[in-house]
Fold this sequence. Notes:
five-stranded parallel β-sheet, Rossmann fold, three-stranded antiparallel β-sheet, elongated, alpha/beta
Amino acid sequence: MKYDMKKIRTLGQLKAAGYTSKSVKEEMRDNLIEALKKKANPFTGIRGFEDSVIPQLQTAILSQHNIILLGLRGQAKTRIARLMINLLDEYMPIVAFSELNDDPLKPLSRFAKDVIDEDGDNTPIQWIHRSERYTEKLATPDVSVSDLIGDIDPIKAASLKLTYADERVIHYGLIPRSHRGIFVINELPDLQARIQVALFNMLQEGDIQIRGFKLRLPLDIQFVFTANPEDYTNRGSIITPLKDRIDSQILTHYPKTLDISKEITKQEVRLNSFQRKHIDVDDLLSILIEEIAFQARQSEFVDQKSGVSARMTISAMENLYSYCERRMLINSEKKGFARISDLYAIIPSITGKVELVYEGELEGIANVAYFLIGKAIRSEFIHLFPNPEKLRKDKKRSNIYEGIINWFGDGKQIDILNDMQQNEYEKTLLSIPGLKDLVEKHVPSKSSEQQLLLMEFVLYGLAEYSQLSKTKLDNEMRFKDLLGSMFDINDNKDAEEDEEGFGFSKN
């Protein structure tokens, strides 16, 4: 029910308007019911959870539960919590200037009770927006009871000339100030056990203790917690009484398909207007970036308990655009087209976003990043082109890659420079006989820029399937005959080893 906030400025006017008190959980429940009836989505921007997390979350809200969102990093736990404010009423009345957002019909603090006793129906009313009813705290080892619950304020005692026996000397912490709102604690297991003890009485009984004051404060709060499952399951991370008072535990997860992952990245990536207008990133590159994340989430070199955040693909896409923009500026070109070789420019986005197990540490983070890029290319290649390994083994079928491989076998090589101009890039790829024809046959109806990208992709795919040699140099990628490269001592001295030199299996 909406009220005329301009006319309702006193307690008497609020009563006359027919206002009735409602708990924050009841308020969220009622607004969710309305949203479900209207087929509206309060959790806009959350993708991939439509059939899993969101129904469970809605069920918990209908049950008026306190909630914990359990999942690995980068699974939108905090975003979900922040979107819950959409289920609050747009505006809420409070006793004017009360620090605990006191309900005018059910005052909680000593201040609000004294004002109402003195002014009665003339008690002034304020309206606060739902955005002011959300409080978030990151759990860190230095969080204290004073931060969350409160403490004695000697300055207040001195200025008001009060003794420490008067409860008005209390300075309330974040939780009491979140009365009639949503309070979120991120990474709950990081909160010290003694601090967690201070929470569980508040969740159910409404008792708080501050420096000897035992106050009965029936706080009205929607509690939401987030946690990483690895921390959460460690003994002692969350004390049992607190865990018992969190009514619903909801498990989040990473995107289950590449399409959903692409949608999330596209939604979250931060690009400026110049990049959006002048740089073309083909869908193939978007798929490869997402595939790198999928490969990382199942790699034996990556710590799966830590997870691979969705932020990795977002920052990788931003780096891809920026690297292409850099080449544009260097070459004074008006349009930029991202290339397969540009994927190696996203390595800084990978190395900072994955945690390695012991085997991965032995290989080195940069080498693991190279390996993941190679695995993504290998995985996606056979979705567009025939499997080179099967063609090589099948004596009954002609090998469509044979002409290309033989051309390199005659001692030819090509170098794709990082900052190569577009016309040189085109000239280099077109110099390989049969490469363009192969692309036109298997992936027809593409623009000239897309054809070049796919021609480069064929070279990378053949290298990943051990048909060609691929060597990463400081400022270029070199492709040549696989057998000949084994005897090229000079190249081995100058080159940074590619995946084949890192002891990684191609299988």
